[in-house]
Structures are given as structure tokens and as C-alpha cells.
Design a protein that fits this description.
Chain A has three helices and two strands. By secondary structure, chain A is mainly alpha-helical. In chain A, a hairpin with a 2-residue loop joins β1 and β2. Chain B has 16 helices and 13 strands. In chain B, a hairpin with a 2-residue loop joins β12 and β13. In chain B, α2 packs antiparallel against α3, α5 packs parallel to α6 and α9 crosses α12. The two termini of chain B are 13 Å apart. Classes of the chains: A mainly alpha, B alpha/beta. Chains A and B meet through α1 and α2 of A and α9, α10, α11, α12 and α14 of B.
Chain lengths: 94, 475
């Protein structure tokens, strides 16, 4: 596995983070060291193991399809500066 | 004074609730100046609650008769939402965020008459072992201010040590309740995954996060656990089993209980002073009639760190995708495309360790690497749960040090690489990965610094931990 600057920058871009030169210089050797150590997971035979995405067994939780209490539109918009005509205002899409 | 005695004095108005709350808030401010345990002291809310209780007491309201926390000061880790009180999870990206609702645990505390005194300091989103990765203040160890409180619930642990008549709500993803509890010499109980609702908790890793009580005595921990445990329809991962009366386990005899001493958790890598005190703790349990013997748990100790960090950072990288400067939290000037705007908000407002973990988690989930890292870790998790389950067929609880070192100096922590930093969590990550309840018990002091012992039980066996933990601290 080749962890290089290109891969690091690609991963950061996917995560919507722009790294500074200083961060790249710092993170690259750290990421290499960490992943190298974490690769030791391959020592374990997991051929017959199913993955656990939760630590305990969970059952589907459903509820009646009834209207409940909900925050108002004004309340929902009260936490942002970017709003217009009762809507959230976002950056341009196209 | 025990919580029970205190509540009685509030009820019969021997102690005036408003005067008492004012006094507590004054103490909080004093403590905060020196130790930095709070991100926010919720003075307005606390006094409003106290005045309402006083009004009801004056009217001899029957409503207050069975209130479990009447007048008791409760702090909440900053990741727990409190309506109208700034809630940041230690991150600049949530600065000035005032939730529109209370977390489930806060609702419960309020219903039982607990007074919410503030939001305690933590690592940003819980990403850390020493509470140093914060956009705000760094909490200091109550026994030596040049040393760490532990993390990520560092403020909660330190405050539990310094402030009387107070119980804290902490949160753990990979050891963030028990580690700071150990470094600050208090009890900290991390419940079974799903036992306490996560509704209103700002998540770090959704299959790992648990809210739990921290306090100076095991009685306080059991009391707060009784208030917060139970099913919540608003959290789809909340367990539907009925919760127990945890207080009835306090001082219940431990004679005949079987304790497994995790063989791999002692010896090399563990400071000798820590080991000695934990063995003393085991001996104390044996003197009360518990039977202890060694058990080997290779997978949790040897592979816990990569398993935990792959799962936790993978989940964190998706859980933190929602912070984009649109609906709440930090904003930037609206310009550029969607991606440019989101990238700017996130790059300017996430701290260094957050970026590091998001990148690690994004990598572990990416096509080409997912099978070798994320999926592999999820499979190892299954094997690890099986290994624990096998041990619990024989033992009521497992024991290890909570953390293998004494609270370190900030100047020594600075020298650690991220990987060395992660490795320090070796004792606590695996019970978290397996969703098992675990408790830090203060068992002694070395060089005037506290040492903690970790007790781990099977799913939903928090009662056994409280039973065993109550053997200690009989001063």
C-alpha cells in the first residue's frame, strides 16, 4: 500500500477538507505510521466471521405513522445567518 | 453529605435551594478559574430551575415527593445538548450553537429535579485521551495542574473530584468515561451500548457512543444511572429491555462472585505503581469473598487499538459530514460552489485531530481499502465479542488497570505521535468495541496521583459492576 501525498490529498478532498502545506507535511508520515500499525489486523483469520456493525443485536424500531410535535420553521431557521423567505440559503449549486 | 441526606434537607427546606444553587455556581466559577472544567456555566438555567423548585416547595407541592435528584447539581459533557445553552462538543464548528431541544438524559435529569450547572470541557467531538484537543480550554488534573485530567470527558471527571453535591454526565466512545475517571480519582460508569439513549448526544461514532454517570461515590453513580437508563423511542438503537434499580446493588455482598484477571493487561507496558495498586484492589475484592483467577483475552488487548480506531474513525468521518456551515454552528461568507463553501467551513473550523481522524476514517471506508480496514475491523469485532462472551460464561466481571500510566504531564503528552497517543487507550477500547459496561474504581494513590481499576461486565450487567465497585471507598 502506497500512502503518498497524492492519496492524502485525494482522501482530504473526498472528506471536503483542504489541507495546508504544513498539515500535509505533518499528516503524511503520521498516516503512514498509523496505517502500517493498523495493517496488523490482517494477521487475524476472519474467514468465518460476519462483520458486526453494532455491538449488540438491535431490532428494527418502527412507530405509528402519526403526526407528532416538531420544531417550527422559524425555530429551525433561528440558528443560521443564511436564510431567505423562510428557507435556508446555500451556496450556488450550478 | 450523601445525596439522599442532601435531598431530604432540600425537601424539608433546611437548605434553601436557591441560596445553595448560587453558592454552587460561585464555587464552579472559582474552580473554573484554576482548573478549566467548564466550556459554559449555565447560570441562568440553574437559577431558573432552583427558583421553580423553591416555589413548588413553598406551595408544599406533592410533585416533589419522589424526585430522585432534587436540588443536586448535574453537569453535562459539552457534547450533550441542553436547550438554550451553548453546546459545542469542544469544537469551533459548533461555537454559539444553542440547541432547540434537550437531550433525553437532560430531560430525565430535569424531570427528577436535578439542576443543570453547565457544560464540561472535552476533546473536540471526543477525539482524545487527555482533553488537550479542544478549541476551548484544557482542563487540568485536580491533583496536579501540570498534568492531564484524561479524556475525553476530562472536565466532567475533574469537576466530580472538586465539587461536592454534584454528579456528572460523561460520554464514552473508546474509554472517555473511565480514563478521565481514573486520572481524577472518581467513579465513572460506561453503560452497555443502547442502555442510555443517545438522543441529543452530538455523535462521534454511532455504534460506540454511550452516555454514563461519573461521581465521587458509587452511590452517586448508581443514583444518576437510575435516572438516565431506559428505553427511548427517539433513539432507534436504544435497548427495549426494562432497566434495573441500580442503587440496590450498592453494598450488596460480593462473596462468591468470580473475577477474571486479564492476563495480557498486566506486565510489560504497565507502570509498576499502577499494577501494584490494581493488584491491591483485586485483593480487596478477594478479602470480601470474591474469587479471582487469571484469564487470557488476547484479541481485545493485542488487536483492540486497530479494531477500535478503524471503526471509530470510519463512523466519525460520516457522522461529521453534516457540519457544513448551513443550518447551525459556524458560518462563512456564502460564496463559491457547494463544495468550495463546505470545504472552506470545514477546513477553517475543524481542529487538527478532527481533520486527522476524518481523513483516517474516510481512507478506511474508501473503495480499494474498505475490505482490508473497515470491514476487517468489523469482523474482528465479532470475534472479540465472542471472546468476551466466552469469558463471561465463567466470570461475573473482568479486571485490568483502567489505563497503564499515571496522569502524565502536558509537556510529556506533547511528545507523543498520534499513534503513540492512540496506543494509550489499550485497556478501554475493547470493552467499548464490544458494547460492554465498564466501571472505573479508584483503588489507590501513587506519588499523590490516583490509580484506577477497570471492571468489565457482560451486556446489561451494570448492577454487578456497582456491586463490586461499592466494596471500595468505605472511608
Amino acid at each position: 500500500m502506497e500512502v503518498d501525498r497524492k492519496l492524502l490529498e485525494h482522501v482530504a478532498e473526498v472528506a471536503r477538507i483542504k489541507l495546508t502545506e504544513e498539515e500535509i507535511g505533518k499528516f503524511l508520515p503520521q498516516l503512514k505510521e498509523t496505517l502500517e500499525f493498523f495493517s496488523k489486523l490482517k494477521e487475524i483469520d476472519t474467514d468465518n466471521a460476519k462483520p458486526s456493525f453494532q455491538p449488540v443485536e438491535l431490532k428494527n424500531a418502527v412507530r405509528e405513522d402519526k403526526e407528532g410535535k416538531c420544531i417550527s420553521q422559524d425555530e429551525a431557521l433561528s440558528l443560521t445567518e443564511h436564510k431567505k423567505d423562510g428557507y435556508f440559503k446555500g451556496p450556488r449549486a450550478v | 453529605m450523601s445525596a439522599k441526606n442532601f435531598i431530604d434537607k432540600i425537601k424539608n427546606q433546611e437548605i434553601d435551594i436557591v441560596e445553595h444553587t448560587e453558592k454552587i455556581l460561585g464555587e464552579c466559577k472559582e474552580i473554573n478559574k484554576e482548573y478549566g472544567y467548564f466550556n459554559t456555566i449555565s447560570e441562568g438555567l440553574a437559577l431558573e430551575q432552583a427558583k421553580e423548585i423553591r416555589k413548588q416547595l413553598k406551595n408544599s407541592s406533592k410533585n416533589l415527593k419522589n424526585k430522585k435528584l432534587l436540588g443536586i447539581a448535574i453537569s453535562a459533557k459539552d457534547a450533550i445538548c441542553v436547550k438554550g445553552v451553548e453546546t459545542t462538543a469542544g469544537s469551533k464548528i459548533l461555537q454559539n450553537y444553542k440547541p432547540l431541544f434537550d437531550a433525553f438524559v437532560i430531560q430525565k435529569v430535569k424531570e427528577e429535579g436535578g439542576i443543570i450547572i453547565g457544560k464540561t470541557a472535552q476533546d473536540e467531538f471526543g477525539f482524545g485521551t487527555f482533553s488537550i484537543n479542544s478549541a476551548f480550554g484544557i482542563p487540568k488534573n485536580p491533583f496536579d495542574t501540570e498534568r492531564s485530567c484524561g479524556g475525553s470527558s476530562g472536565g466532567a471527571a475533574g469537576l466530580s473530584q472538586k465539587l461536592a453535591n454534584h454528579i456528572a454526565l460523561g460520554e464514552s466512545t473508546g474509554g472517555s468515561i473511565t480514563t478521565p475517571a481514573s486520572f481524577c480519582g472518581v467513579y465513572g460508569l460506561c453503560p452497555t451500548y443502547g442502555r442510555v439513549s443517545r438522543c441529543g448526544l452530538i455523535d462521534f461514532a454511532n455504534s460506540l457512543d454511550k452516555i454514563g454517570p461519573m461521581g465521587k461515590t458509587i452511590e452517586d453513580v448508581a443514583l444518576l444511572m437510575n435516572v438516565i437508563a431506559g428505553h427511548d423511542a427517539n433513539d432507534s438503537t436504544s435497548l427495549n429491555e426494562k432497566s434495573e434499580d441500580y442503587e440496590k446493588y450498592v453494598k450488596k455482598p460480593v462473596k462468591g462472585m468470580k473475577i477474571g484477571i486479564i492476563k495480557e493487561a498486566f506486565g510489560s507496558g504497565v507502570e509498576r505503581e499502577v499494577e501494584k495498586n490494581v493488584y491491591n484492589g483485586i485483593q480487596e475484592l478477594e478479602e470480601e469473598g470474591a474469587k479471582a483467577e487469571e484469564v487470557s483475552l488476547e484479541l481485545p488487548i493485542k488487536y483492540g487499538i486497530p479494531t477500535y480506531y478503524m471503526i471509530a474513525t470510519s463512523e466519525a468521518s460520516t457522522n461529521l459530514a453534516k457540519y457544513c456551515g448551513m443550518r447551525y454552528g459556524a458560518f462563512e461568507k456564502l460564496e463559491g460552489s457547494f463544495n468550495e463553501y463546505f470545504t472552506k467551513v470545514r477546513s477553517n473550523n475543524f481542529g487538527e485531530e478532527v481533520k486527522r481522524r476524518i481523513i483516517l476514517g474516510t481512507f478506511a471506508r474508501m473503495a480499494g481499502y474498505r475490505d482490508a480496514f473497515y470491514l476487517k475491523a468489523a469482523k474482528v469485532r465479532t470475534l472479540m465479542i465472542n471472546e468476551y462472551k466466552k469469558a463471561f460464561r465463567k466470570f461475573d466481571a473482568l479486571v485490568s488497570p483502567t489505563i497503564s500510566i499515571l496522569p502524565p504531564k502536558f509537556s510529556d503528552i506533547e511528545k507523543l505521535s498520534p499513534l503513540q497517543h492512540y496506543m494509550i487507550d489499550v485497556m478501554t477500547v475493547s470493552p467499548n468495541v464490544a458494547g460492554l459496561p465498564h466501571l472505573n474504581v479508584p483503588v489507590g494513590f501513587e506519588k499523590n496521583l490516583p490509580v484506577g481499576m477497570l471492571l468489565i461486565a457482560d451486556h446489561l450487567q451494570e448492577g454487578k459492576l456497582i456491586q463490586l465497585g461499592s466494596v471500595f471507598g468505605n472511608e
